[in-house]
Amino acid sequence: MVEDLAHTSTSLSFKNEESALEFKFKGNNCFSNGDNSNALRFYTQALRVAPRDVDVMGKNLVAILYVNRAAVLQKMCLFLESLRDCSRALSICTSYSKAWYRRGKANSSLGNYDDAVRDLNVSLCMEHSLSGKQHIEGELKLILGQNIREDFPPNVNKCKESSVTDQLQGIRLQCVKTEMKGRGMVSLTDIPQATLLHAEEPYAAIISKNCRESHCHFCFSELPADIVPCPSCSMALYCSQLCQIHSGGKDQQFHTKNHGTGFDLSGDLENYVASVIKEIEGVNIKKFAEHKHECGVNWPAALPAEIVLAGRVIVKFIEQNRHSGKTSTIVNLDLCHNYLQLDPESRLELHISSIVLLKCLHYFYGSDIPLNGNTISQCVMLLSQINVNSMAIVLVRSADLVGPPSSAGNHTASTVEQVRAGQAIYLAGSLYNHSCQPNIHTYFLSRTLYIRAIDFVAAGDPLELSYGPQVGQWSCDKRQLSLKEQYAFVCSCTGCSQLNFSDLVINSFRCLNQTCSGVVLDSSVTNYEQEKINPFPCRLPQQVPLELDDVKRVARFLGEETGSNRSIKPGFCLSCGNFCNLEASNAVVKKTEIWIGRLQSLLDSGECLATTLSNALRALDSLKSALHPYNKKVAEAEDYLAQAFCLIGDLQRSRDHCQASIKILEKLYGDDHIVIGNEMVKLASIQLSLGEEHAVEESRSRINSIFSRHYGSHVDAMFPHVRFLKRDI
């Protein structure tokens, strides 16, 4: 079985000439019939499986496919993508006349008329047929005529992406060891809010399995229309040739058959061709090629992502040792692990996974990875380290809810979504401890980790991020369970050790006394909250006064310093003591969740039926009769209704439900949490569609404040899709 995973002879991702030609034929038919989207899909499929050493009618098959796809992209008005495909074809065959012709067309469409004329003149010199030459000459006349009318706009290189820089502030950080949390990071100086503290490239990274067809396997950004497949296997996909080289190495790249064109070109055109080829082939990367050992075998696709990530860590360690003249294969990342806390079954799984992984790597590296007890035990420790130290690379994307068309156009509500695109090890980033109420924020641009202070942090205070669960997201009992299962520790942060408003209300029921704002808790919550109030008074100095006031409003008994009423009993109101039949309340909630769930399913499919919406509205009223007004389920129901009303074009009601949801989330997370910023984007887009100029301005100001706090100058790079908020109404 392991042989099937590790041998290239049994690979399911090998290149296949027959399949490539079949996809090419289908693409040609679709292109002839004007079905550009399917033509694009078939040409891309052909590129994924086309061998790089196959010629068709004297031309390299991969070069032909790139030129064919460039023609489709040109038809779809994706001119920059078309230009890139032409350049990729030329990186394989410099003397490919049609590639120069298509490149000229793309440059012309982009307004790069100087380059377009040169491209077409090169194509004219390389074209053999008389009809082909006449066609190129006709295109040249068109562009030169356009030149006279438009006076040659400046040749702007539109291929380069803008980079965003945010300087580290020179804050002095120190790794310290504490009795409660072990190693952790503190600052030796005061840190202002929004200060960028840390930026780091991953030691090793791997794409999530659910993103393999939609995101770049190196930088994890969403794949463009001109996908670049790995030249040696059909599994890995990239957003650019640069990412492909980063991942697979320079030796996997196509090289031009001849650097000379073999044609009699003028000195100017000869220099132009040389500059184009130099730009295409000028990438010189000496970094570790992380995909090379995985190329053309089955185990990276079959094994879990964290095991494949461990393989990349081991291989990188071996390659680094080779470079320095060492021969050790024992990986020591000096990170904590949870092996001792694992149950026997989980330990057995780690041992089996380690043996399988090392055997797969052994087929590639031979004696560099010996199969013995020492390397297996070290691999087990590595997997255990990855379990508790790897970070999910979460990228931000936008999604628009599009309502029915009107005289003002379609109604849309922009939403901010997060995608777990990858998983990575950051050696320095792993030193930061967890808090359910973090004072630093982590985010990613491509695969680079950034850490920014979201609060003022005094010198000597710990710098703590969230490992996932936060106050406002889950109740204390769920956070503790998640952290214990995944990271093998019991959290003792302020959110888990001190009373806070969010944990009391997030899953609570309402008091039967309609004039009482108290909370009623069930048995799953009471034990965790009870632990926080013994002794409550000694912790008061650490609590924010406003937070304590909020607690007293929903749990008056817990604010009393003496008396027996400070014990929490399931089913009893914490403000007036009334008993609530939780069995009956839960029955109401379960019934309403059926209708809310149906509405959610319709929203996921982009539909919204009037009867389902009407039932969901009644369900919301029933939900409010059983749950506390600040219960998170109420916020979620309000949000679903906001989306539904947007879909049917009732923007006023959509706005009202959106505002109601945000009001609850503010109580759960706090006014300046990033979740509130994301929800405000949705609200602002609805207000924009309604033409509410003053309201949009207020929302825009608040969004900018929250996003700047969490992302600093990276806001535009993180959220390019919300730039619509900056336009005039």
From TrEMBL:
InterPro entries: SET_dom (IPR001214), SET_dom_sf (IPR046341), TPR-like_helical_dom_sf (IPR011990), TPR_rpt (IPR019734). Residues 171-468 form the SET domain. PROSITE patterns: SET. It holds the Pfam family SET. This is SET domain-containing protein. The lineage of its organism: Eukaryota, Viridiplantae, Streptophyta, Embryophyta, Tracheophyta.
